[in-house]
Amino acid sequence: MGLDGFIQLVTVLAIFAVVLVVTYLTTRIVGGYARNKISTGNIEIIDSAKVAPSKYIAIVRTASKYIAIGIGKDEITYLCDIPEDTIVSRQATGDKTYDFKELMDKARARLRNKNENT
Questions:
Q1: Same domain, yes or no: 49 and 33
Q2: Residue 84 has what DSSP assignment?
Q3: Is the CB of residue 61 less than 8 Å from the CB of residue 41?
Q4: Quick one: pLDDT at residue 40?
Q5: Which residue has better confidence, 49 or 107?
Q6: Sorting pLDDT into bands at 50, 70 and 90, what band is 118?
Q7: How close are the terminal C-alpha atoms of the chain, in Å?
Q8: Domain extent for 9
Q9: Is 47 helix (H, G, I), strand (E, B) or coil?
């Protein structure tokens, strides 16, 4: 490998480094904008739990109402309303584990009813 080959290698590595830096900065700027946009709205995801591959249950605050939703690959399903006084925040408990048993029971009952009606 001659001097020309070495110069080409250094040039390609420099361009690659510049592309990585630009990508990193762009991601940080867009991510910061999106985070601020989400946190200032009337919709907030309080908590979520994975129940199967690409399937989640989430507790969402919309204005002053709390609801449970099922999130799948191509759909979002309303599960039930949740009384505000039963919501346990992470800040209040300092604990990251939650009891979803009651929520899951309600969701299963709702899905059974939905399947029986169709």
A1: no
A2: G
A3: no
A4: 59
A5: 49
A6: low
A7: 71
A8: 1-40
A9: strand
